[in-house]
Automatic annotation (TrEMBL):
InterPro entries with a match to the protein in the record: Rhodanese-like_dom, Rhodanese-like_dom_sf, Rhodanese_C, TrhO, TRHO_N
The Rhodanese domain, residue ranges: 128-221
One Pfam family hit: UPF0176_N
Higher taxonomy: Bacteria, Pseudomonadati, Bacteroidota, Cytophagia, Cytophagales
Protein name, per record: tRNA uridine(34) hydroxylase
Record organism: Marivirga sericea
Amino acid sequence: MKNADNQYKVILYYCYAEIKDPDQFRDEHHLMCLELDLRGRIIVSQEGLNGTVSGSTEMVDEYMNRVKADPRFADTDFKEDFHPEHTFKKLNVRHKSEIVHSSLAHINPRQKTGAYVEPAKFREMIKNEEDIVILDVRSNYEHELGRFKNAVTLDIENFRDFPEKLSDLEQYKGKKIVTYCTGGIKCEKASAYLLEQGFENVYQLHGGIIKYGIEADGEDFEGKCYVFDNRLSVDVNKVNPKVVSKCFVCESQSDRMVNCANPECNVHVAICEKCGWEMEGACSKECMEHPEKREYNGTGYYQKNTNGYDPYKGFQGKLEKNKL
């Protein structure tokens, strides 16, 4: 919720929609974001748009209006939060083959995907339906930090490994399955893939964990939700919160998500504040002694070296042309 200390808005969104010339769209979108002083990560693909950005409330609202004014993205569901400052240091708008990296490029969620379950309905289902499978399709470091009560989790390092776990899911083939992830984008393809593989009763939590936290107070989500910006994690549950993760070093209960200070390791793990300072942000003694270990400032987030980052690089000519 917004207050006097939270002047910036953070949004998470995606939309599967055909973009015929993603290179041109990428350039135009990049310039628009610069105009609005937005920062974050946006992926443009022939299959759609996926992003998380931060900026002033006024400029983010303007961005959302402009995106939704395009008929292709009119139904985009923006998940909104507030923060005292930008949650990103720079802007990256990139053209990639998929808007979420997977090994399921052949699947088009616009043609077939699991039916949406809205947050309020999902809360009822997990409370009242005993024979339901709540399936987390995120990576290990994400669900180890937080997950829905009694959720089925998969031992995967990346979403692209999801199809390899099909044999683990065969036992649930006759049951109702509801998939979930951070913002919903992975579930579009995960649920579609399960349907393709003969699973018949497949649904997905619309808007993922973030929307569930906003609309259903995050009830029965245990732990914190990992996010892909400099916050690293956010609180979700306002009803019955619970810490489920343990400090990687001492194994005490902790939900302080950090990146290891050793850049060659950079593992995403929970480390309690005491161990964080004692280990100088490293996950092990070996990493603490690494010659390239980064300076720990108590957050466990390390901004990549910008190396002369210039958001207008490559666009000067286009900007001059637009002025003519």
